[in-house]
Design goal:
This protein is of the alpha/beta class. The protein has one domain: Adenylosuccinate Synthetase, Chain A, domain 3.
Length: 129
C-alpha cells in the first residue's frame, strides 16, 4: 500500500471518549499497517511538568502543551495480517495487542479491519445482533 504516517494509539483519550459516549464496543481499523513494526507503543498516561502522572486527559488544548506522553511498549510482529478474516490466524503479538487495548479501554474490540477490502474484517461481536 501507500506510505502512511501513523501515530501511536492514545488509550487515555479513547477511554475518556468511551466514558463520555457510553460506547460498548469498538472497531479497530488498519491493523495491517502495523505489520513489520518491531515494537508498538500505547499511550497510557501523561506526565506534567511536576512529574505527576495523569491517567485522564486534560480539559483544554493549552494544558496538553506542557505534557509528556507515557507509553507502554509491546512487541510488534513481522507476519502479514492483511486480509486475515479469522482472529486465531492473527500473529500472537497482534492478538496480545488487541487484548491489551481491550483491558486498557474496558470495552471489547468488536470488529477488526485487516485491509482495504470490505471482506478484510474480523467480526468478533455482531453490532446488529
Amino acid at each position: 500500500g501507500r506510505p502512511r504516517r501513523c501515530g501511536w494509539f492514545d488509550a487515555v483519550l479513547v477511554r475518556r471518549s468511551i466514558e463520555l459516549n457510553s460506547i460498548t464496543g469498538l472497531c479497530l481499523t488498519k491493523l495491517d499497517v502495523l505489520d513489520g513494526l518491531s515494537q508498538l507503543k500505547i499511550a497510557v498516561a501523561y506526565r506534567d511538568s511536576q512529574n505527576n502522572e495523569l491517567t485522564a486527559p486534560p480539559t483544554s488544548a493549552d494544558e496538553f502543551a506542557n505534557l509528556q506522553v507515557v507509553y507502554e511498549e509491546l512487541p510488534g510482529w513481522s507476519e502479514c495480517t492483511a486480509n486475515v478474516t479469522d482472529l486465531a490466524a492473527l500473529p500472537k503479538a497482534a492478538r496480545h495487542y488487541i487484548e491489551r487495548l481491550e483491558t486498557l479501554l474496558g470495552v471489547p474490540i468488536a470488529i477488526l479491519s485487516t485491509g482495504s477490502e470490505r471482506n478484510s474484517t474480523i467480526i468478533r461481536q455482531n453490532p446488529f445482533a
